[in-house]
Amino acid sequence: MKFITLFARSLVIAGLALVLTGCLDEEQQWNAKEIDGMLPDLEFTLTRSDGETVTAEEYQGQVRLMFFGFTNCPDVCPATLSKLTRAIKAMPADLQDDVTPLFVSVDPKRDTPERLGEYVNFFYDRTVGLTADEPTLRKLAKRYRTTFGYDEPDERGNYNVSHSAAIYVFDGQGNARLLLRSDLPTDQITEDLVQLARQARS
User: For FRET with 112, which of 6, 49, 133, 168 sits at 20 to 30 Å CA-CA?
Assistant: First the structure.
């Protein structure tokens, strides 16, 4: 009888350990691709849409979503901005202000600070529009292992800009944490942002 009692207790303890382990694993799960230690911390010196020069420290403590694009982008950029806006607004109200999207224009020839500001504010008033001269932008893109390029202008001088659709997610300390794919469902983006925002407050 004593052996049976001890065996039963062992089963209960083992079961609790499995449950607790499952809870811990669940807390560490992400929908987006984890990039901890794969990319450098967030660092930049760029021109904001209000004409001010800003650095990454300006938004320290915030979960930052950085991606590259341009205001004349016909599809990827507006779709991305719309999706991120929906994802953030689906977060608990008290956490929404802890997330800041950073839209970096790689088309400084056409995207003046004023134009950039009007563009990002159309989607979400907390999105920060940033740009710089081309050499600075190329250095920043290289830092995060991406690139961009310009097509030949047409007879009217219009041209397309090729760029990555990836969204880099940095935590409150500026550490690279996640890479969001363009096809990731909005609700899954929200889940990841909520988890990161709560971690930033802890």
Answer: 168
